[in-house]
Design a protein that fits this description.
There is one protein chain. This protein has 447 residues and is an alpha/beta fold. It folds into two domains: 165 residues, Aspartate Aminotransferase, domain 1 (Alpha-Beta Complex); 256 residues, Type I PLP-dependent aspartate aminotransferase-like (Major domain) (Aspartate Aminotransferase, domain 2), CATH 3.40.640.10. It is globular. The structure holds pyridoxal-5'-phosphate (PLP).
C-alpha cells in the first residue's frame, strides 16, 4: 500500500485556485469540480498542476488518451507537420494528410480484418459521428425510429441525447426527445433474464407498439453507463436479430474503440460486422478532436454536402491519427499488452476487495474496468480520496456507483501498480471514516 508521507500530503495541498474559471466560466463545468487542480503540463500517464503537483491519470480524458499525454512519437510527427507549414484547415477538401490517414486506416485496420467500409469525417466530436450515423440510417431505410439501450450514452446533441438513457442529461434537452425506443441492455434485468428475447419479440410482434426502426445503436461496453459489458454471444445474437428484421446496426465505439478493450474495435471478438461504426476520442491518438463514421459501402447514400461541418477531418489530427496506427496497430503487441495489464489489474482489484472486506464486484473488458460497490456512495468518495492522493479516477453509472479505471493503454506496470495501491489506500481511508462516523452517531444516540 502507498502510504503518503507528510511531504506528499503537503505538496498536494498546494493546489492553486483557478481565479478566472471560477469567476467567469459557466456553471455547466463539471470535471473540474471533482478534480480541482489547475493543470499545466502532462506527459504519458501523468498530469501536472501549475504548482508542480503530479497526478497519475487513470481517467485518460474519458478514453481520449489511449496512448498517453503528449505521446513522444506522435508529438514528433505533429511538430514536423506544423514546422513545415503543413496545411491545417481544409474543410473536406483533399489533403496529403487526409490521403495518408485513409491509406493507413485502410491498410492497417480495415483490410487485415476483412472489413469493407467507406469513411465519413463528420465534425470533430463523438456526438457529430453519432448524429451522422442516425441521420444516414434514417435516410437509407426511410424509417424514423431508432432503438437504443438502457444506460447508454451517445452524446449531448439532440439526436444523441434521444438515444441516451441518462434522465438528467435527457432533461437538459428542454424538449421532447422522440422517435426512439429504449430496450433493456445485456444484464439490465438481472443475470437470468434474456433481454434479447424481449427485443426480438418487440420487433416481431405487430402489436408491440414499437414501429420497425431504422437502426439499433449500442455500445458493446457501456462506459458512462457503469461499465456494463455485453458478452460476445449477446452481440452475435443482436447482430442476427437486426439482420432478421432488416434493421441497421450502429456500434458506437467512441469510448471503447481504438484498443481500449484490447483489439482495435471492441466488437472484434464477436466477429460481427456492424453496418455503421462511430469512432472519435482516441482516434487522433493525441487528444486532438477527430471523429469518423464507418459506413458499409451499400449504405453510403449521402448526397454531396448533405451532411457537413467546418471542422471535418482536421489535418493535424489526420497526422497524429495515422502515426498512431503506424506505431501501435501494425502488429498485436499493444493488444497483448492490454490483455496482460487488464488481467493483472482485475486480479489485484479482487484482492483489494477481499483485503478491505467490502462488498463489490469487478467487471470490464481490456483496460476499461469497473468496480461496483454495494454502498453506492463509496465510489464517489474513493474517487475524491484518490485525487487527494495524486490519482485521477472517475466514477460511472447512473448513481456514480461504479469506480471506473481507464488508464492510458501505454501505462507502465509500475504506474499500474502504483495506481492500484492508491485505490486501496483511498478505499481503506473511506471505509475507516465511514466506520468512525457510524461509531460517533451511535455514541451520540446513546448519550
Ligand atoms: N458515444 C460514446 C460511447 C461516448 O462515450 C461519448 C462521450 O463520452 C460520446 C458518444 C460523445 O462524444 P463527445 O463528447 O466527443 O461528443
Amino acid at each position: 500500500m502507498t502510504t503518503l508521507t507528510s511531504q506528499m500530503t503537503e505538496d498536494l495541498n498546494k493546489i492553486t485556485q483557478p481565479t478566472y474559471s471560477e469567476a467567469y466560466e459557466s456553471e455547466v463545468r463539471s470535471y473540474c469540480r471533482n478534480f480541482p487542480e489547475v493543470f499545466d503540463t502532462a506527459k504519458d500517464s501523468w498530469l501536472i498542476g501549475r504548482e508542480g503537483n503530479r497526478y497519475l491519470d487513470f481517467f485518460a480524458g474519458a478514453g481520449v488518451l489511449n496512448y498517453g499525454h503528449n505521446n513522444e512519437k506522435l508529438k514528433r510527427k505533429l511538430l514536423e507537420y506544423i514546422e513545415r507549414d503543413g496545411v491545417v484547415h481544409t474543410l473536406d477538401m483533399y489533403s496529403d494528410a487526409k490521403e495518408k490517414f485513409i491509406e493507413a486506416f485502410h491498410d492497417i485496420i480495415l483490410k487485415p480484418r476483412g472489413m469493407e467500409y467507406k469513411l465519413q469525417f463528420p465534425g470533430p466530436t463523438g456526438t457529430n459521428a453519432v448524429e451522422s450515423a442516425l441521420k444516414l440510417a434514417r435516410k437509407v431505410t426511410g424509417r424514423e425510429g431508432i432503438i437504443s439501450f438502457t444506460n447508454s450514452f451517445h452524446g449531448m446533441t439532440i439526436g444523441s441525447l434521444s438515444v441516451t438513457g441518462n434522465g438528467f442529461k435527457r432533461k437538459g434537452a428542454g424538449m421532447p426527445l422522440g422517435n426512439t425506443s429504449s430496450m433493456p441492455f445485456a444484464g439490465y434485468l438481472g443475470e437470468d433474464a434474456d433481454t434479447l428475447e424481449y427485443l426480438n419479440a418487440m420487433l416481431k410482434d405487430e402489436g408491440s407498439g414499437v414501429d420497425k426502426p431504422a437502426a439499433v445503436i449500442l455500445e458493446t461496453v457501456q462506459a458512462e453507463g457503469g461499465v456494463n459489458v455485453a458478452s460476445k454471444e449477446w452481440l452475435q445474437r443482436l447482430r442476427q436479430i437486426t439482420q432478421d428484421h432488416d434493421v441497421l446496426m450502429i456500434v458506437d465505439d467512441i469510448q471503447v474503440g481504438c484498443g481500449r478493450t484490447g483489439k482495435f474495435f471492441s466488437f472484434e471478438e464477436a466477429s460481427i460486422k456492424p453496418d455503421f461504426i462511430t469512432l472519435s476520442k482516441s482516434l487522433s491518438g493525441y487528444g486532438l478532436p477527430f471523429a469518423l463514421v464507418l459506413i458499409k459501402p451499400e449504405y453510403d447514400q449521402w448526397e454531396p454536402g448533405e451532411h457537413n461541418g467546418t471542422f471535418r477531418g482536421h489535418n493535424p489530427a489526420f497526422v497524429t491519427g495515422a502515426a498512431a496506427l503506424e506505431y501501435y496497430w501494425k502488429d498485436d503487441a499493444l493488444t497483448r499488452d492490454v490483455g496482460r495489464k487488464a488481467a493483472y489489474a482485475r486480479e489485484e482489484l479482487e484482492k483489494i476487495i477481499e483485503r478491505q472486506n467490502v462488498v463489490a464486484s469487478v467487471r470490464g473488458r481490456g483496460l476499461i474496468i469497473g468496480v461496483e460497490f454495494e454502498d453506492s456512495n463509496l465510489a464517489d468518495n474513493i474517487s475524491k480520496a484518490c485525487f487527494d492522493r495524486g490519482l485521477v479516477i472517475e466514477t460511472a453509472g447512473i448513481d456514480g456507483q461504479v469506480l471506473k479505471l481507464l488508464p492510458p493503454l501505454t501505462v507502465t506496470d509500475e504506474e499500474l501498480k502504483r495506481g492500484l495501491s492508491i485505490i486501496e489506500d483511498a478505499l481503506h481511508a473511506v471505509l475507516l471514516a465511514d466506520a468512525e462516523k457510524v461509531e460517533s452517531e451511535v455514541a451520540a444516540a446513546g448519550a
